[in-house]
Amino acid sequence: MADFIMPSLGADMKEGLLVAWRVKPGDQVKHGDIIAEIETQKGLFEIEVFSTGVVGPLLVNPGPDKVPVGTVMTTISAGDELPSPARTSSEKRINISPAARRLADENHISIYDLKGSGPDGVIGLADVERVLTLAPPVAAPEVVKQTTDFKTGMRDAIAAAMSLSNREIPHYYLASDIDMSCALDWLEERNRQRSIRERLLPVVLPLKAVALALKKVPQLNAHWVDGKIQLKKDVHIGFAISLRGGGLLTPALHNVDQLSLDQLMAALSDLITRTRAGKLRGSEMTDAGITVTSLGDLGVRTVFGVIYPPQVGLVGLGRIAEQPWVEQGAVSARPVLTATLAADHRASDGHLGAQFLDAFTRILQEPAKL
Amino acid sequence: MKAMDIRKIIETGLASIAPEADFDELSPTENIREELDIDSFDFLNFLIGLNEKLGIDIPEADYEKLVSMNDLVNYLDERTG
Fold this sequence. Notes:
heterodimer; A: alpha+beta; CATH 2.40.50.100; B: mainly alpha; Non-ribosomal Peptide Synthetase Peptidyl Carrier Protein, Chain A; 4 helices; globular
């Protein structure tokens, strides 16, 4: 039996609002299924379950009260824990008419909490209706959503996370200028052969290069927890996505090292679209081991990043612009990207950060291998 | 297709990205991406939308020619015939 608790979707999150259950007691769920929608200061998120089994009684009703992180909201009995005969018989003892069960389900009322007034204690439609009139109505998602002012909430959440970062993380910063001629020539040729729908944005090249560089320098794909570094096995990269109303989110692109550039472009499109539509999953907010922020669209040359705790590094990408480039005594104009690394000096030293940027630079010189 | 119709299609596409945009206030020679705060991802999707509505393939090399509303209308007008 596993508890399903109100998850923490970031270092800054203390409580969340249950907007809706997507399951009912008795439903079979498996790892990765969405079982609830939760609202935080940063918006609405779909929450997955990380165990497989049967959903127990729903212990928390949707809104309007906020639920502290860590509160048990339901239980998932493990798949191999088949109900014991005693349990089965106790469940069988709930006598409820089909119409009453349906009405209870529709209103997220646990049938285990109902008292039957019919013959032999059978729960009838009237019993459910009585609970419905007594209990405060389960707020519809539309109503619950309006309880948080996202603009203020988003600002508060960013303020909390970034204050924590600058208070606790001793940042060090490194920058490298990278000749992007090879990478951009290769990308231009590739895009020329494709319809507009299949074209890649330049940012997928450095994103994939970050993933491959992390395979060489895995110490930067990590979380800093309780004074210790915890290396991440998978390469999930948070990508900073600005929101039109203000604020930003840094959801994760999963297993970037294993994606082809086409798959990465598709994953990026999907992630940006869902972020801006408020359709992210909870795990995407927490499982990144590093974050990439790209501000080159607005002409920024160098990004001096602030690490998103508990991560230990942030890669900043500026614009790719033509600059004079000296090689073997000759000057030529080349497209140059200034990439930066902000890293946590508790978890790594400048030498390691330099190894990462060096690997990143070299990988971008061989775009066909990305 | 008339230039007015093309402009309407452009405005519809931009409005889906920047719902708060006021096209009466937008100068026809201003940089649209800067004025409406449109990033490269949104801009690509905007061009994909134009491609679907007008059937015009816009090569990547031409992206940089498409800066203002006038640029867009003229570019598309020449190619829709």
